[in-house]
Each structure stands twice: as C-alpha cells, then as structure tokens.
# Entry
Amino acid sequence: MKRLLTGIAAAALLVAGCAPSGQDSGGSGDTEAPADATEVTFTLNWVPYGEHAPFYYGIQEGFYADEGIDLKIEPGSGSGNTIKAVAQNQTMFGWADTPPLLNAISSGMPVKSVGVFLQKGPSSVEFLADKGFESIKDLKGKRVGGTPGDAMYATFPALLAANGMTEADVTVVNMDAANKIAQLAEGQVDAIMGFFHDQGPTIESRTGKEVDHLLFADSGLNLLGTGIVVGDETLSSQKELVGKFVRATQKSWAEAVKNPEDAAKAMVDLAENEPPEEVLVEQLKLAEPLLQLDTAGAPGVNTEEQWADTIGIMAANAELKDVGEPSKYWDGSHTKANG
# Structure
C-alpha cells in the first residue's frame, strides 16, 4: 500500500505545513511513527472510499503517531469478513457495520464495538434521479436490487412494513454487491439497496447521471452504522492501547470533516485503488451528517438507547439470535464527548 510517504515527500509536506487549508489540526504532523511505536493493523469494511479518508488523514497529520501507534491500514471485503478477521486475531482493529457485528457476536465471535461513528445509518434505496421517487411507497411495482446476507436486504421487509407496504409490492432482485452499481446504471433494476454516501457519488462519476436516494433512517428504520471493532482479548489485555487508538480515530474524524479536501488528498497520497479525489471529497462530505455531532458531542460517542433500538430492530426483523443488553455488543468506556 501507499500507506507511508517517503522521507523526501514527508519532509516536503512538513515544509509546506502539512495542512494546505492553513488550519492547525493539532497534530504533530509526523507522518512517520516513532521508532518505539506499536504497530497496529486496521482492516476496513471494504476497499477504500471516502468514508475512510479520516484514517489516512490521521496518519498524515500525526494523530496516530502522537499516540505511539504505527497504523497499517488494509482494505476489506465486507463487514462480515472484517469482523471475522478481528475475531481470529488476523487484524487488531476493524471498521465494520453494526448489524453484521450483532450477528457475529450472537454466533459466538469474541468481538465488541468500541464506538459506532456513523450513528445515522447510511443504508438507503438509491436510484437515478429521473425516476423521481419521493418516498418508499413510490417503489410499489418496481424492481429493487439487493444482496442476500447483508443487513439492508434482511431489514428491507421491515422498511416496507413501516411504510404501509408488503413484500409483494416490490420485486427484489438478488445480485452480487460488486455488480449492483452497473446493473442500476444499465437499467436492469429501478433502484438498489446500498450506502448512499459511498455508491451515490461513484455512480454519478461513472455515468454522468444524477443519483438520488431514500434513507432507511428517514423512512422509519434507523440502524447504527460503521464503527471500530476489536477482539475481547485485546480489549481486556491491551486496554490502554485500545484507548489510544480510539482517541486518535476520534481526532482524525473530527479534523477530517473540517478539512474534507485535505483528508481526500491524504488518502490519494497514502491509499491504493481509491476513487478519484473529487469523489472522495463528496463521499466524506455526505458522511459528515451521519456522525450526528450535534447530539453525540464527538465522533463515536454512543448511548445505550441507540444500541437498544438497533438490537430491537434486528431481533424483530433480521432473526438476531440470543439477544442481549447493549453491553454484550458494545464497550463505550473509551469514547468521550470532548473527543
């Protein structure tokens, strides 16, 4: 990966100030971690897209290095696989969606969330804007693409029910996650289930067509989104390191949403196979409201009520087994409202 800059490039950035916008992000600006730093692996939920820009920005601005962490980011292949990698100690931390985390824990995987950052779920029904859909009810008689096994697919019937519809009102077309964008663009379906802040800008970039969406969260069904996952053993045996990683990640998000263009540039410098820079900026800007900073106070700060609501929805609509209290799935002791 292009995770670390060369010494010459790093020096050039330091001379330039490391913050092109002119704002002081509060980090050391040391891209290279100190020699005695702890190497930490962090696996994403998917291949890099704009939601991940804060992590690369945190590396470039020195937020992780300031906590004594040498962060190595790896792409993912779905939240479920990332959670499994954490459970099997193949990676120390993961970035994953909450519904598959609940299912993983219920199946016995020894993992927990230490903070969900996208607190307003990004799950949506996406479509080309010329379709003109204004509510879930407008999907009656339409073809909607979804991927069996993901949380959106599992809770889609509940979304329909919350809007006075039944499964018979919509034709759900099963499709692989990697093909949904192409099939929507080609008109094989009228809409797809997906994360609007990721796929929307990507579709627009590839097709030149405007994309619109209907959020599950605005249509009666809000589920907590993506956040940090860690293994139970790491959580108990390396509590201080977990706290440092969470703190650096909170700062990375807080500063990245203030400077989305700079965060996108950091990702272009340090990631591989990322979308075009302008797409990254748009994806990150769309993610910012999902942090719900007005109520959370800082990125990644959750409440028991939020967790209980998501657990309840999953239990009622997605066959969540062995349902427990929020503490079974989440340890909020490392996140603080002051960041």
Summary: The two ends are 29 Å apart (CA to CA). Residues 239-256 form the longest helix (18 residues). The CA atoms of residues 132 and 239 lie 50 Å apart.
